[in-house]
Write a structure and sequence with these properties.
Lysozyme; two-stranded antiparallel sheet; 14 helices
């Protein structure tokens, strides 16, 4: 992997960590979702829809979440420019401003914080409907099928897990045949579709460097002190990944400023070739998140 690719990936991880810290949404889930949706590419574009960016927001979903949450994250100009019609459609009167708002989907910081807010909204709504805590897979179903579709999917799966997904969501099945049908053309059941999404989320989180699962029940992160970062499972990551990623980030011209000089020296001095100490791993994770906070 090239230095540019490493630095780009580090910047995306930084944005996701900051979004997790600011909203309390599980870090492992946000990381896994980004990997599944875009392969951690901020400029990813779908070939069959308007979906764009790290979290593959379509235009209407993006305008809606920016309208609801942009103001508290420095995007007040965007939120104020978006209006909702009587039919529920989101519109922006100025074409140039509309394009600028949609272009934010390719900005990792904007995409990550809006994805986290969207997940938080879906979590609250699903838990109210289902009467139980949500899992990361439940949230991904809401991202994939919409909130109403996810509620219908999860309610039905609880009663009839063997029912085929294509029979319930024919339009989605036509657009996503590889999800709703096996390679031999056999339609997948609701439980099979759910299990496949769970596996993809966990694999995605692992590929992104997380040590926890993305598909399971999401732990609330609680309150934070200024500058403190907690992983989704409440534990500080002890993976060498965070130390190496942080050093790569600090050694670039963009992030290697003087205020982190002593911390960088500590990491370089104490980094074990095989495994970092818990102290250096914690320091690395805190620094990585704050670089882009």
């Amino acid at each position: 992997m090239s230095v540019a690719s490493v630095n780009n990936r580090a910047g995306i991880q930084t944005a996701i960590a900051a979004a997790s810290r600011k909203t309390g949404v599980d870090f492992n889930y946000l990381l896994g979702q980004a990997q599944v949706e875009s392969g951690m590419r901020a400029d990813a574009r779908a070939g069959t829809s308007s979906a764009t960016g790290l979290y593959q927001f379509i235009e209407q979903s993006w305008l809606g979440v920016v309208k609801d949450h942009g103001g508290k994250h420095g995007l007040g100009w965007a939120a104020d420019s978006i209006k909702q019609t009587s039919s529920g459609r989101y519109v922006v009167s100025d074409p140039g401003v509309r394009q600028a708002i949609l272009h934010l989907r390719s900005d990792p910081q904007a995409a990550a914080i809006m994805a986290a807010e969207h997940a938080s909204d879906n979590k609250a709504a699903l838990e109210d409907r289902l009467g139980r805590p949500t899992t990361g897979t439940d949230l991904y179903m809401a991202h994939f099928l919409g909130l109403g579709g996810a509620g219908k999917f999860l309610d039905t799966m609880a009663e009839s897990p063997g029912r085929t997904g294509a029979s319930m969501f024919p339009a989605a099945a036509r657009a996503n045949r590889n999800i709703f049908y096996a390679s031999n053309g056999q339609p997948r059941t609701l439980s099979q579709i759910y299990s496949r999404f769970a596996g993809k989320l966990d694999s995605g989180a692992a590929a992104g460097g997380a040590t926890g699962l993305a598909s399971t029940q999401l732990d609330p992160l609680g309150d934070f002190n200024e500058g403190e970062v907690v992983l989704g499972n409440g534990a500080v990551d002890s993976d060498r990944h965070w130390v190496e990623t942080t050093l790569a980030q600090l050694n670039t011209g963009k992030s290697g400023n003087d205020r982190f000089a002593s911390q960088r020296a500590t990491l370089e001095r104490n980094l074990d070739p095989l495994r970092p100490t818990p102290e250096t791993a914690r320091l690395a994770y805190l620094m990585l998140a704050n670089l882009g906070a």
